[in-house]
Batch of 3 targets.
Target 1
Amino acid sequence: MSQRLQRAFIGLACLVAAPLCLAQASGLTRTLVTKADVSVANREAVVARVEVSPGSAAGWHTHPGDEISYVQEGEATLLMAGQPARKVAAGEAFVIPAGVVHNAINHGQTATKLVGVYVVEKGQPLATPAPAPAP
């Protein structure tokens, strides 16, 4: 296989894999479990396993729809624009409305693992990096 063809194949593989594992920051991984249409026009539900590594942050970002997450393991500090910081731990859940700038920081020694359900606009990136909100 020529070098040019190998590069094209690698590039295509990256494009195909990107929706399966989207990371805003090096400490965050999001792995697609499934996605399906919902009863709201032009929306889909995306279910993903989300992990924030110890000592890492998800990075400030938004979603083109609502996020509903359940913390399976660990804990994190949830930061949402316009709201006080909130600790979330295993067994707890949270909801982030569409378009709200937010971040999660894992100050612990173990990974924070979540199940994230996103009801988002079809054809939009699941997450978009955003600047930190003004204090």
Target 2
Amino acid sequence: MNIRRFRKEDWLQVKEIYEQGIATGNATFETAAPPYEKWEAAIADDLCLVAENEAGIQGWCKVSRASDRCAYKGVGEVSMYVRAESRGKGVGKQLLQAMIKESEAKGFWTLNAGIFPENIPSLRLHLSMGFREVGIRKRIGKLNGVWRDVVWLERRSQIVGVD
């Protein structure tokens, strides 16, 4: 598996993977993939990676700014999606490992993730990569008319922001 920076020409495959995640009903509150421009505009500091093999892109991971406030310049929210047929094969772990390294190189000291409690594989992965559960945001939003909880996780860097 090759982990590399996202390029604009990757969008169609990235969008397809995102739509697969949306279809599960346990990945996001979104009900449709946004237009490319909106999706790309949310990427912080060029922090978007894809996992690619001979069959194409198998997953992607990006960091968005948690806030525009200066005090939070090193805090980002991570999103990650893996192609349906590649789930459970280590793609997510490779992406998240690479993103942690890349985000720290760009000065991020905290990564947040909001995950539906029903998404057990994603919760396990994040916890195995040093994220900790901060709390559960009860009934934080509706998806298809149903109130959903979100488990809020964070990972604090051991090398950035330790002063």
Target 3
Amino acid sequence: MSDRQGVRGHGPIRSKALLLYAGERTPHRSCGIALAESFDRPSAAYQSLRRGGITGHGQCGAIVAGQLLLGEFLGDPDPTGTVTAPLRAAMNRYLERVESELDRGPSPTLICNDMVAPHGEFMGGDRHRFCTAVVGQVAQLVDELLREHGVEHVATPVTLADGSVEDHGS
């Protein structure tokens, strides 16, 4: 069993990501899309992260989404620019924290299939609960690291399946 306790903290971005991924009060989003939407980013490219790059053989899509989000917010918008100091620092810290804190269960790797295998059927409830928790942890990590670098992203409201609006921004 893992000695990782999971990423602590429960900010509004984490709450929004959990709501979007869980799919109980709004339609379910994949891990990457839930994270992209939590930070109000266009989600189309994040669809490729579903189930570890569609196949399950790639790294956890939530973890990769976290890397991409850091790049979107802290990277140089000039396509010929160098890696910015804030992005380099945040990425190093992100990967350290994923390794030391993220609760990935008994998995020795960050490969999607390895992480979800102990949780039964991919479409089953235990696996869904596990992945929901991972999405929340990644959202919290990205939010904390962005704040450390002076980027505060306020969680925007989500329109729920019943038409009501859930506001995580307060």
